UniProtKB/TrEMBL annotation, chains A, B:
Belongs to the APS kinase family. This is Adenylyl-sulfate kinase. The keyword Glycosyltransferase does not apply. GO terms for molecular function: adenylylsulfate kinase activity; ATP binding. GO terms for cellular component: cytoplasm. It holds the Pfam family APS_kinase. Residues 29-178 form the APS kinase domain. Pathway: Sulfur metabolism; hydrogen sulfide biosynthesis; sulfite from sulfate: step 2/3. Its EC number is 2.7.1.25. One of its GO terms (biological process) is cysteine biosynthetic process. It comes from the Eukaryota. It comes from Carpinus fangiana.
Length: 299, 299
């Protein structure tokens, strides 16, 4: 605790309630899903969709969004290389804390440099760091330019912009790669499904096959099954359909013939409404709605 | 995203799964319990005890320990005044994230300066920042000197040590004050009980009166009642009794007559074992064991 040195006289404090106990409480395993990719590649979209999908299964997740953190924890940092590194380091440390708390922590940051991402990976037991690479070509990201940043970068109004005048180093050893197929972006639901499948396979979502109606909150014994159906799962599902639709249209404008638009705007939602109506007779039909959402992509 | 300015071109990313949804999932309300006080005043002891007590009620908490964070997130910071401020700021920001995630975040730091603590309070909606002041006299902390740091500070081997040659500014508006009574330190269980009562009164622990056997994990439907009794509640309770005993002895050495020691070491545990045995016949008898633990203090 000298004023000069940093980490001297610091005692590690162990607590009897640890990660294992918290994981048991939550019925899941804590980990970090680290989403990396160019600006406009769909990182935040995937983060939100994944968070919705996990929530609908009664799993606790939390999104650490790079932009949001720059309003708080990292507001003292610029975009200079050394500050980018410190930005990623801090997010990595916080993500590690969340994973230790038992949550599925979804970190969504451009995180362009391989060494910075690998440093975060090194903080966690290897299997608990799941790197998701949004492999979307620069041209497609720039064509979308959802935040108008590429335009500013091309005009020289932003310096050191990843993909334009600062490099993006793609992962060499990522656990999951998400990319457009035949020029089509996957829907948020399909992308989330890909990650959820991985998490399921690796045992991070224990007991996800137990009754879906709020595997955590139902413990309170307060909410009836019908209440639960009207709450998170249905809301999350309707939100998923809407998000899928908007994302599909935003992402594939050049693909849309007028027939296609008519089908998407009118027929497709009715198919889902039909299933929604059916679900009130039999809530269990919700459990396999992933297939539906995927039709958007293969449509 | 200019290389010069910090927070320009940053877009706030809203996610449809928010704090309210996570709180519903967890059946609790996220908040920050900020424990402040001199080195050796019992902050970490309270943090652990509180975490155990909350866990035994099926509530998800996470401890941000100042010392532990200096091994990770804050390892680049020294104990210079400006670095202390940055240390507290970062912990405040991370605590805010945990509260937003729905957890009861227990931050345990000396946090000597009032303005730094108030800055953290200002980050959160007022009622969600619960400042706990460990009001233990310097003389008592120094007499205990659990980490041997006061000795080093008095010998001039540590500069800027809080309470010796750096000030501690007590809170003016804390929510909870914990102090020795008649020179006796409260037991960890009693201290945790004081905080839990506050959290209960303010509605942070919703539905805590529902069956105690793991209000969250029980949702999985996997563990029998007997399993649950043998798991977290009993383990936490036994740990509580042990911790209480050790803490009491460590904290009140001058009070211990040989009769007292005999009573503590032999009679007191047997009283608890008796109750433990009884509890196997009737698990519900666990629900009011707070009274027991408090006898340590008033003993």
């Amino acid at each position: 605790m000298s004023t000069l040195s940093n980490s001297t006289n610091i005692f590690w404090q162990e607590c009897p309630v640890g990660k294992v106990e918290r994981q048991k409480l939550l019925n899941q395993r804590g980990c970090v899903v680290w989403i990396t990719g160019l600006s406009g590649s769909g990182k935040s979209t995937l983060a939100c969709s994944l968070s919705r999908e996990l929530h609908s299964r009664g799993k606790l997740s939390y999104v650490l969004d790079g932009d949001n953190l720059r309003h708080g924890l990292n507001k003292d940092l610029s975009f200079k290389p050394e500050d980018r590194t410190e930005n990623i380091r801090r997010v990595g440390e916080v993500a590690k804390l969340f994973a230790d708390a038992g949550l599925i922590c979804i970190a969504s940051l451009i995180s362009p440099y391989r060494k910075d991402r690998d440093a975060c990976r090194a903080m966690l037991p290897d299997a608990n760091f799941i790197e998701v690479y949004m492999n979307v070509p620069l041209a497609l990201c720039e064509a979308r330019d959802t935040k108008g940043l590429y335009k500013l970068a091309r005009a020289g109004k932003i310096k050191g912009f990843t993909g334009i005048d600062d490099p993006y180093e793609p992962p060499l050893n990522c656990e999951i790669e998400i990319q457009p197929k035949d020029g089509f972006c996957a829907t948020p639901g399909a992308m989330a499904g890909q990650v959820v499948s991985y998490l399921e396979d690796k045992g991070f979502l224990k007991d996800h096959k137990t009754p879906k109606a709020g595997s955590v909150a139902a413990a309170g014994g307060r909410q009836s099954d019908r209440d639960m159906v009207m709450n998170s799962p249905v809301v999350a599902w309707v939100a998923n359909v809407s998000a899928d639709l908007c994302q599909y249209i935003a992402c594939n404008p050049e693909r849309l013939s007028s027939d296609h638009v008519l089908h998407l705007l009118f027929c497709f939602p009715f198919q889902h409404l039909h299933r929604l109506a059916l679900s009130f007779c039999s809530p269990s039909t919700f459990s396999d709605h992933d297939d539906d959402r995927d039709t958007l992509h293969s449509d």
